[in-house]
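User: Quick sanity check before I run a bigger batch. Here is a single chain. Can you write out its predicted 3D structure?
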Amino acid sequence: MKRLISIAFMLISGAVSAQTEGYKVGDVVKDFSLKNVDNKNVSLADYKDAKGYIVVFTCNTCPVAKAYEDRIAVLNATYAAKGYPVVAINPNDAGAVPAEGFEKMQALAAEKKFNFPYLLDPGHVVTKQFGATRTPHVFVLNKTGKGNVVEYIGAIDNDPEEANSTKIEYVKNAINELSTGKKPTVTATKAVGCTIKWKKG
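Assistant: Done. Predicted structure follows.
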């Protein structure tokens, strides 16, 4: 029994360790260039007037991600004009889940009339740099003299099913505080959603 508990603890520890790789709050993010659904590459540097970014790892198929599609669009509609645009990235491998393929991404973006870029991350390179583990998983960045600094990591809010009477809008709160020159009161929450579908082999 003790051996089983020990093995279980090692497995849990390994899982936790894997989830904590990637950027932490306070880290400077390396820029990237990924293909958008319009077949043009998008990078953070393209947003010359940005004060920061809402980088969202999301996808086509996860029920939780789909539940947040409209809220992600509202975030962009609300904050892009204030200097914090949404940049959405699909981290899933189409080989593992064909419905996550680029053409399916294009179809979803057209159907939902996405008002933000929806980028493909082949090989999970950017996903691994950020340390995203679920869809959706959000990273709020603030543009500073030393680069784009991570200020918040986690969930969009605490209400995936829009049934919480005490809803807390983590991303909105973080950006509102950053906009007034303050650091976010809440800098990290647990991302709730589907696990990322990694390339096999």
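The longest helix spans residues 2-19.

User: Great, the batch can go ahead then.
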